[in-house]
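Re: the request from the purification team.
They wanted to know what the chain is likely to look like in 3D before they choose a buffer screen. I agreed to run a prediction and write the result into the notebook, where they can find it.
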Amino acid sequence: MRAMRRLLGRGQDRGFTLIELLIVILIVGILAAVGAPLYLGYIKDAKTAEGKAQAGSLWTAVQSQAVANCDTSVDVTSGYSKAGFSSTGATTPARWKVTNGITNFKVACADGSITPNGVVFEIDGTSADVSFLKVQLTYTAGGTPPSTLTCNTGTGFNPC
């Protein structure tokens, strides 16, 4: 019976050695050191995508308003309600606000050209978690493509 217990390990102390525990802690530490920066990058990318989506919805709303009233100047604020912004240019809940840019622009009925060129609008993050982000839509008639989004996450405006 004693021989069987020795073979099966009964009666012996069970548990992990200190070396085994240290190796596991080391592996978990390495995974955390590699994973944390990647996770934070994904969070930043998601918040940037949210800002770009807000800018895209506003640009679509403003363009549709301008096309519907071709050869007539249209105020950028006319697209706020269609894009989910309040009359002051803020979202609900207050995470984004429209600032800067062209007040009025016009779409020509004949060829669809938009005037004037320049920054159409800028959307700034107002909530604490997105306050570092600004998304700017610029229109240049001769550009390819004519409308471009640029993002500023603290290092100046760059294509996003």
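For the purification team: The helical segments are 2-8, 18-68, 80-83.
Please add any questions underneath this entry.
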